[in-house]
Amino acid sequence: MATETLTAVGTARGKSPRRRRRGIRRDETVAGWLFVAPVIVILGLFLLLPILMAFWVSLTDWNGQGSPFTSEVPFVGGHNYTQLFTEDGLARRDFMTSIRNNIYYVAIVVPAQTVLALGLALVVNNRMLKGKSFFRSAFYFPSVTSSVAISVVFLFLFANSGAVNALLAFLGIDGPEWFADSRGVLHLLLGTVGVDSPPAGLTGGGPFGLSWWDWLAGPSVAMMSIITLVVWTTSGTFMLMFLAGLQNVPVALDEASILDGASRWQRFRHVTLPLLKPTTFLVLTLGLIGSWQVFDQVYVMSQGDPAKTTLTPAYLSYRTAFRDFDYGSGAAISFVLFLIIIVFTLIQRRALAERDTDRPRRGWRRRRVPERS
């Protein structure tokens, strides 16, 4: 009888901590949800809900009058998306022209600003450099200045009688009309070797309604001026990121490589760059996203002209929605642009991801180590 009593008491004592633990964990869960509930509500109201509303607009033919959620607004389904890729017309041609322009823009801006930012960070991080604070502020100053104000300044610099053409004239070069020249840079380079007209094989139908000659035009002269502006204004921000990464590089590794006889280039390639891989991924990702979302410079400096050679998807979405009052097509362009950014970001992450060396390869089995007797 005494044994049964002790067993019951021991069982009850053994179960009570579990119940208490479960109660504590349940209280922590409830408290956690209570703490994050305001943020979830705010993000849901001001982020998720507008995205869902914009997606619904992209499925309609709303012209901006009244509410887009009434039965009077025509529902067109995926027509706003299919006309961008499959239907011949002005909508697809303009969209593919903007994609072509943005591809060249990204291909030049992202590598240029990354290399320039890394170079500036290496200069500022030099131990022998005096006045680091001054150079750091000077390099970062264009990034904190209004992009609209800098765009207006560049309009004066690249004007026909501006400082850039005056400098080129001093060197004996006749400067072009920067914001009125729609010729592609690759076409200009081919013209220097005598190729002024497109070959017969490139004039035929290319992908998505543009000829191969149009796809291979390269960025226009007007787009190159915008590229110059963007590279100059964004490199300062990325310089600070690289500078933070360089200051986290252990000095002992650099000194050990010097003792091993490594040259400056070998130390940079085999010690500094591998340790800057997370920073490089961050810079490339932010640069890629910002390059696909370029809008304000195009709006101030060219508005897609000349001949739509500076037209970008972001500006095309704005123009289609707020000027042509075709909000459905404008919203569809913005969602396609969002998918393009996601795809390129995932590809970039896949290319720069660090491989786990401890993980066995697929198809390779671990060998069992025989136990020692």
Describe this entry's structure for a reader.
The protein has 373 residues and is an all-alpha fold. It folds into 2 domains: 26-53, no CATH class; 80-184 and 219-372, MetI-like (MetI-like fold), CATH 1.10.3720. It is 67% helix and 0% strand. The chain has helices at residues 2-58, 79-85, 90-124, 132-144, 147-157, 163-170, 185-192, 212-215, 221-247, 251-259, 264-275, 277-292, 296-301, 313-322, 327-352. Helix 5 packs across helix 9. The longest helix is centred in the N-terminal third of the chain and has 57 residues, at 2-58. The chain is globular and about 75 Å long. It starts with a helix and ends in a 21-residue tail after the last helix.
